[in-house]
Amino acid sequence: MKILFAAAAIFLAGTAFCAQTLTVGSKRFTESYILGEIVAMTAQHAGDAQVLHRPGLGNTGIVYAALKNGEIDVYPEYTGTIEREILKASGPLDLEGLNRELAPLGLAAAVPLGFNNTYALAMQEDRARALGVRTISDLVSHADVVMGLSQEFIARADGWPGLKKAYGLPHDTPRGLDHGLAYAAIAAGQVDVIDAYTTDAKIGRYKLRVLEDDRHFFPTYDAVLLYRADLPRRLPRTWEALSRLRGSLDENRMIALNARAELDGKSFADVAREFLGERQSNVAGNGLLARLFAPDFGRLAFEHVTLVGLSLLAAIAIGMPLGVLAFRVSASRRWVLSAVGVIQTVPSLALFAFLIPLFGKIGSVPALMALFLYALLPIVRNTYTGLSDIAPALRESAIALGLSPAYRLRVVELPLAARAILAGVKTSAVINVGTATIAAFIGAGGFGERIAQGLALNDNSMLLAGAIPAAALALIVDGLFELLDRWLVPAGLRQAKAAD
Amino acid sequence: MIRLDQVTRTLSPRFALGPLSLEFGDGTTSVLIGPSGGGKSTVLRLIAGLVAPDGGRVLFGNDVLAPGNAQALRQRMGYVIQEGGLFPHLTAGENVALVGRYLKRPPGELRARLEDLCEIAAITPSLLARYPAELSGGQRQRVALMRALLLDPNVLLLDEPLGALDPVTRRGLQEELKSIFARVRKTVIMVTHDMAEAAHFAGELILLREGRVLQRGSLDDLVKRPADPYVTEFVSAHRSPLDRART
C-alpha cells in the first residue's frame, strides 16, 4: 500500500515537473509577432518548460488582460505603453519606476531589448545629407522643407503641436496626409519630411534617415519584456536565457527584421530563427506546403478540434432538451425557437467581442461560449422538427400502449427523430469548424491563428495554410457524421427508408 | 363493460360527435360501421383516451376515464390501427415486448408470452427478428395484434385492422381473426367500412353517421327493419357486384 502511495507521489511530482509550461503572447502587428517568436524560441531553447506562443492575441487591452489572468506569462511591450495605457501614470517613469508600480499587480518589466519604437521624423537619406540635417533641431534653420504629416500625428498633443513648440519649428501646420501615401510622396520628392515609427520596415525600404530627437520630446517606447513576477523564480533557466536578449536589437536591426516579414514575406518564425542564428529556414520554408505542416500544425489542430468538440457537446446537452421542450410544451415553442434563432443572427466577431467583457477574459472561455450559442439553433430546430414529423399514428400507438411520457420519448420518439437530430448536430459541427477560425481573433487558438496572421501580414500563403486545414476539417467532420449516421440511426429506420 | 355516457366531442366546425351513449358488454364483439367521417374511429379514440370528450363520460366498469388513470387503463386495452402502427426502428419482437419491458416483466415470462402469442397469431417465431419493413402487410397486422394482446387486456380496439390488405390476404385474415377472438374471449370493438367484413365478425353492428347512431342491431335487422332510409342506402351500396351478377 505504502509503495503504491510512494509511486503515485513520484508519478504526480513527475507530471507536475513535466507540465511546466510557459505561454508567450504577442499583439497583432508585425513587430510584436516577431518579438513573440523570438521570446518563445529563446525560452524553448532553454529547455526547462514547454513553450507555447499565442501570437497576435489582440490589442494592448486584450494581451494585458491575458497576462493578468495568467493565460500568458510574458509578452513584448513598450515602456511608453506600460506608462500611459497600462499604469495610466501621470508623469514619465523609468524602468525602475515602472516596476514599483507594476509590483502590486504581480507583474514586472525587464530586459530592454535595445530599441525604441516611438514617433520620429524621417527624411530621404540623400536630401538629408544634402541639407546637412541630422537632428530635429537642424530643421529649425530649414524653414523651406515640405512637411508631409499624417492626420493622427497632426492631431495628437504629443505629435506635431507639441513638437513644433518644443523645438520652435518655423514650419506652418501642413494638411494631413494618409500615412500609407506619405512614403510614396517622400519617394517622389513631393514632401521632404514625414512622421514615422522608428522601427517601421519602410524606413529601410525607402532609404530614409530618422532624425535624432535631440531634445527628447517624444516619449520613450523602449521594447521590454512584461511578465508575471513569479516567472524568474518558476523557470530560472528560461529566465536566464530570456535575460540574454537584453540589448540584442537596435533600431536598424528591428527595421530589418520587420522588413523581412512585411516586405520579403518571410514567416515570423523564419525571421525570428534568422535573428537567433538557427539556420533552419530551409526546414520550414516559405512554401505553402511547408507552412501548412509547420510544427504548430498539431497544436492548432488540437485546439481547433477541442473548441468545436466541447462547444458541440454542450450544445447537444442543452439543445436537445430545448427541442424536446418546444415539442412537448406548446406554450414554450415560440420563445425557444425565436430565442435560438436570434442568437444566430448576431455576427460572430460581435458576439466574441461582447462575451469578452462578460467573462472578463479572452481566449477559450468566451470562444467556447460563442460557439456553443451558434451550435444551438440547428440542434434545437432539428430536434423539434424531427419529433414533430413523427407520424401521428406512431405517436398515438405509443400512447395507446400505456407507456409513460418519459419512456415514450426515450424509446420511441427520440429514436424515430434520430436522423433529423443527427443532421442538426452535423450542421452545427460543420458551421462551428468555420466559426472557430474567427475565435483566433480573441486568442482562442486553432487554425484561425494562421488566418489572423495572414490577414495581419497580407500574406496569402499563411492565410491559406490556415484556411485549407480548416476546410479539410469541415469535410472530415462531415464524413464522420456519415459514419455516425450509420451507427446511430436505428437499423429499422434505414430498412424502412430503403423499402419506401 | 365499457360505457359511453352522453359523450360529445367537437372535432371541427363541420363535425361534432354525439351526444352518444353506447354500451359494450364483456366478451362481445361489436362492429362500428358507417360512411367515412361518421365518427367510427373517434369512438375508439375516445375509449383509448387519445381524445378527451368535451362532455359526458367514458367508463370502464365503474372507473371513469380521466387523465390520471388513462395510462393504467390503456394497459388493459389493446389498440390496433390500419397500418399496424408498428415502430419501424424496433424489430417485430421488440415491438410486441415493448410494454412488457416498460413494466419490467421478467424476461423468461416475456419469452413464454411471446411464444404463446406467435402460436395464437400464427407467426413463425423467426419472423420476430425482422423489422416491420421486412414483413408483409398481413404479417405486420398479426404482429400488431400480438403487441395489443401482450398484457392479456380485457378489451381490443381495432381500427380498420385489415383496411390496407389485398382482398385475398384480407379474406384469410378475417377467418383467422374470428377464431382468435373466439379463443381469447375479449371485448372486441372493431371499426370497418366494409359491410361484409362487419357481418362476418359481429352479431351486433352499430351504424354511425354524422356523429350519431343510426341503428344498432344484427345485419338481418339492418336489412329487413331499417331505422332510417339511409340504412337501406348504405347496406345496398355494399352489395358486391358479384352478388348483382349472380341475380
List low-confidence stretches of chain B: none
The percent range for helix content of chain B is 40-55%
User: What is the string of SSEs of chain B from the N terminus onward?
Assistant: EEEHEEHEHHHEHEHEEHHH
Number of helices of chain A: 24
Write down how many β-strands of chain A occur, each being a DSSP E stretch of 2 or more residues.
Answer: 9
Rounded to the nearest angstrom, the distance between the terminal CA atoms of chain A is 64 Å
Question: Can you describe what's shown?
Answer:
The complex is a heterodimer of chains A (500) and B (247). Chain A is α/β, with parallel strands linked by helices and 500 residues long. Chain A is built from 24 helices and nine strands. Chain A is elongated, with a radius of gyration of 29 Å. Residues 1-18 and 279-284 of chain A have low confidence and may be disordered. In chain B, 41% of the residues lie in helices and 24% in strands. With 247 residues, chain B is of the alpha/beta class. In chain B, the strands form two sheets. Chain B has a six-stranded mixed beta sheet, with helices on both faces. In chain B, strands 2-1-4-5 form a four-stranded antiparallel beta sheet, covered by helices on one side. Chain B has helices spanning 40-47, 67-74, 92-102, 107-121, 137-149, 167-184, 195-201, 219-224, 229-237, 241-246; strands spanning 2-12, 15-24, 29-33, 55-60, 63-64, 77-80, 155-159, 187-191, 204-209, 212-217. Classes of the chains: A alpha/beta (500), B alpha/beta (247). At the A-B interface, helix 20, helix 21 and helix 24 of A face helix 2 and helix 3 of B.
